Q: What sequence folds into this?
């Protein structure tokens, strides 16, 4: 019953979005702008209808309505309520429904916020979003229909994939990912709207799109970090990133979006790179669809891959249409979009941004080729190969290290140009930070050049970004006699885009430091312990206390409790890794336990146990600075949020003013408005 | 609109789309395995579910691979908690019955499960025509390099693994392999490879 209602809602939404998309060019070309109300109306109608369907799914899941095919596939009476609700995005059909809902939400928000804007950009952007929505609606009434009736109705279902009901981050990572992924449709829609609405040759459209890109970028970055965290907490191998095709698929659009956020500044400041920025915008969207295709078509082998079906062919058709249409539109209009501006001087911020874009694109292409290479090799040579960590570490990491260095150089250099002497004066102080962090690395036992270099460059970039804050705050204190805190708040508030960017940089540096330290200084040991037996790894000692078992409605739990011993042998805490045996699965789900501190994690995983509790085999990993990665994720998000609340008339930032009319320096402005 | 540029750009998309289309013809989870063609690891396992006449074996009886030389052996690993095992239950039981008068032996191996649960499952599923055995400590499963259940191994009359099937097996696949391995079909040039459903 509820399934039929939801299915019909989706069917009507398909008709609505198709109608709304098709009426738009008619309305614009015939000059009947009042007809655009139909376009916008269909955007709102789509949001309403998909919301009804999504709500119906949640109700069906919570009430265990196994007559709905998706509930029969992922529901179970013994699954806790939270995991029942979030199984909405745990399998293929539900995730497509959730995707469609997020897209409908974004489209409604775009229309609500921008529909009064004159010109044809917003109508065409709405049309683009409606076309994308139409694709997902087709999936939802066709191959990925989550509301198919099941007969006879089963009494119970298998429950969600066990890996997905084992950790709370499963409630966090997928929604963030969808908000990021789907959000990137909005800048894409603005790019297409700009071309079709004949506004691409101006810089106006990026003023609309960049905030949406920044928001999506923040969501996607947070999602990637949350995914790493989930992997670390659940999978039991003590790692957080494996260059798996699906991980790469989330990383690729993040790279191009990062490049976009930088190139758009050059476009606005120097009237350069407009075509390039447009390309980045389009590429980011295409990469999100590509990522979704790779996850859901089953053409690459991955731990994340969803079960497959006919849906892959629909995605292929959609990618083909998106690629062809956007390539034709962008290439066909490239001469008109191209900008005439030029670089000020070699030692300038825009030069650094150019290099930044070059390296980000290089990393993106490397990861893309590495991800698709198994497919290419099989097509060309008929052999099965897998591309693993060594390739990515060797090919992509050097460029990423270079990007960290640039992160310190960019903020220090002015727009336009400066003399080499001036550049030297600005670039030297951060070297002190590089020396300090490099020395810390050596004292911590780093002996390889690459690790010491990575630490030093993080130190360089961190000092470079913090110094910008310090200079600004010092200037405000001198000019207005403000306290340090007031100066910090007003400085940031005066140019949130710029200082939000620096905050995001600091976040990325925390992540870089955590990744470098935990890869370089990780130590692990595995041993079988009898109760009372202990194991020491990198100065940290654990002692087995007991092996225990517990029955829960949906699973059996076997755990080992270990005491964590301090330097003096006193017990300073306990740690209890477990193995969860879900009723529906053949494989136990390891549940490592992690004890976090400022200096790093003590990570203990239960590998095996004696049925009588006589012993337990545990793997103990000491992972320096891993919590810094998660903390860095929060800092990145904070940076994005600061940047999002940038003020200015209709998104016009003070820094948008050209060189000839310098913007008021927030460091000297009297007070934040 | 510059159509010449547009066309060139459009053509650039063709190889990528062709590559993805090619991807559909491949199965990334098809993993080469060294097992087919090798001697099947030996085992001696105890019957816990007798099966039905004429294929029944008494509970407590020990079945040995060694004693089954000369027969085609279908070794099916299953468990009561395994959902996909339900899908292949009828094809397996039916095919076993059809080959009752031929030198073919179907054996179910209970994997990571309690015999009581297995017996109850067989009753719920409406019976199983052939006997099932217990595999203490999953030793045989380890010998056969089991990924998960269901997994089916078809052993030829000389005790070599002819075929390994991951996931639920169908009657068509069973018939095709048993027919090709039974003495009457002397062809023997069957493809040796693994397959996933």
A:
């Amino acid at each position: 019953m509820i399934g039929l209602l939801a299915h019909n809602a989706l069917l009507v939404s398909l008709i609505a979005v198709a109608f709304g998309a098709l009426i738009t060019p008619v309305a614009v070309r015939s000059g009947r702008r009042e007809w655009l109300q139909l376009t916008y109306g269909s955007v709102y109608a789509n949001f309403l209808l998909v919301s009804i369907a999504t709500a119906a799914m949640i109700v069906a899941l919570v009430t265990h309505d196994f007559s709905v095919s998706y509930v029969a596939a992922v529901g179970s009476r013994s699954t806790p309520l939270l995991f029942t609700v979030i199984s909405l995005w745990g399998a293929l059909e539900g995730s497509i429904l959730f995707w469609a809902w997020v897209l409908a939400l974004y489209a409604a928000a775009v229309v609500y916020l921008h529909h009064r804007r004159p010109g044809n950009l917003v109508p065409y952007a709405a049309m683009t979003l409606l076309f994308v929505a139409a694709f997902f609606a087709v999936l939802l009434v066709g191959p990925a229909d989550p509301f198919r009736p099941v007969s006879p109705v089963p009494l119970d279902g298998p429950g969600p994939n066990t890996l997905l009901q084992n950790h709370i981050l499963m409630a966090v990572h997928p929604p963030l990912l969808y908000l990021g992924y789907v959000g990137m449709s909005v800048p894409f829609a603005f790019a297409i709207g700009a071309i079709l609405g004949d506004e691409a040759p101006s810089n106006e459209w990026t003023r609309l799109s960049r905030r949406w890109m920044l928001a999506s970028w923040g969501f996607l970055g947070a999602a990637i970090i949350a995914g790493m965290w989930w992997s670390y907490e659940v999978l039991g191998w003590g790692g957080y990133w494996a260059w798996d095709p699906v991980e790469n698929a989330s990383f690729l659009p993040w790279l191009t979006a990062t490049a976009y956020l930088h190139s758009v500044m050059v476009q606005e400041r120097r009237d350069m790179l407009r075509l390039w920025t447009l390309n980045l915008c389009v590429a980011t969207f295409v990469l999100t669809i590509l990522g979704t295709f790779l996850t859901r078509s089953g053409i690459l082998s991955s731990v994340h891959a969803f079960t497959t079906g006919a849906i892959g062919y629909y995605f292929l058709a959609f990618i083909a249409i998106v690629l062809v249409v956007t390539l034709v539109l962008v290439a066909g209009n490239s001469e008109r979009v191209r900008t005439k501006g030029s670089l000020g001087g070699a030692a300038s911020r825009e030069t650094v941004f150019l290099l930044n874009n070059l390296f980000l694109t290089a990393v993106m292409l490397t990861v893309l080729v590495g991800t698709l290479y198994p497919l290419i090799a099989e097509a060309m040579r008929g052999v099965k190969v897998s591309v693993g960590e060594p390739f990515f570490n060797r090919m992509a990491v050097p460029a990423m290290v270079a990007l960290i260095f640039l992160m310190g150089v960019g903020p220090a250099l002015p727009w336009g140009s400066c003399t080499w002497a001036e550049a030297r004066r600005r670039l030297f102080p951060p070297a002190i930070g590089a020396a300090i962090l490099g020395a810390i690395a050596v004292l911590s036992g780093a002996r390889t050049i690459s690790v010491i270099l990575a630490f030093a460059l993080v130190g360089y970039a961190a000092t470079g970004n913090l110094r910008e804050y310090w200079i600004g705050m010092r200037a405000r204190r001198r000019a207005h006699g403000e306290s340090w805190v007031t100066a910090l708040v007003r400085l940031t508030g005066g140019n949130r885009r710029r200082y939000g960017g620096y905050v995001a940089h600091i976040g990325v540096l925390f992540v870089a430091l955590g990744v470098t330290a935990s890869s370089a200084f990780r130590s692990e040991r595995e041993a079988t312990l009898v109760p009372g037996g202990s194991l020491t790894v990198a100065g940290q000692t654990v002692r087995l206390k007991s092996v225990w078992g517990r029955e829960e409605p949906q699973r059996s739990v076997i755990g080992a409790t270990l005491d964590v011993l301090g330097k003096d042998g006193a017990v300073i805490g306990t740690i209890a890794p477990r193995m969860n045996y879900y009723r529906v699965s053949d494989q136990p789900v390891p549940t490592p336990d992690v004890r976090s501190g400022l200096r790093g994690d003590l990570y203990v995983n239960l590998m095996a146990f004696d049925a009588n509790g006589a012993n337990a085999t545990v793997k103990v990993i000491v992972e320096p600075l891993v919590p810094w990665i998660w903390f860095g994720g929060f800092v990145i998000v904070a940076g994005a949020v600061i940047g999002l609340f940038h003020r200015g008339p209709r998104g016009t930032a003070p820094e948008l003013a050209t060189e000839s009319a310098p913007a008021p320096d927030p460091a000297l402005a009297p007070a934040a408005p | 609109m510059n159509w010449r540029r547009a066309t060139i750009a459009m053509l650039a998309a063709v190889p990528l789309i062709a590559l993805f289309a090619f991807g559909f013809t491949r199965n990334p989870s098809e993993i080469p395995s060294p097992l087919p063609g090798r001697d099947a690891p030996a085992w001696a396992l105890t019957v816990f579910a007798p099966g039905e006449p004429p294929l029944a074996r008494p509970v407590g009886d020990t079945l040995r691979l060694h004693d089954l030389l000369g027969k085609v052996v279908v070794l099916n690993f299953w468990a009561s908690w395994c959902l996909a095992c339900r899908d292949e239950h009828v094809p397996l039981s039916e095919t076993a019955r059809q080959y009752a008068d031929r030198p073919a032996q179907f054996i179910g191996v209970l994997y990571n499960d309690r015999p009581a649960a297995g017996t109850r499952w067989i009753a719920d599923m409406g019976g199983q025509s052939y006997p099932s055995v217990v595999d203490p400590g999953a030793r045989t499963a380890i010998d056969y390099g089991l990924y998960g259940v269901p997994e089916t191994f078809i052993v030829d009359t000389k005790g070599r693994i002819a075929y390994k099937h991951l996931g639920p097996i169908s009657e068509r696949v069973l018939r095709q392999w048993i027919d090709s391995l039974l003495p009457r079909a002397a062809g023997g040039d069957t493809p040796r490879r693994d397959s996933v459903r």
The domain at 44-196 of chain B is CATH 3.40.30.10 (Glutaredoxin). DSSP finds five helices and eight strands in chain B. The longest strand of chain B covers residues 72-78. Confidence is low (pLDDT under 50) at residues 185-197 of chain B.
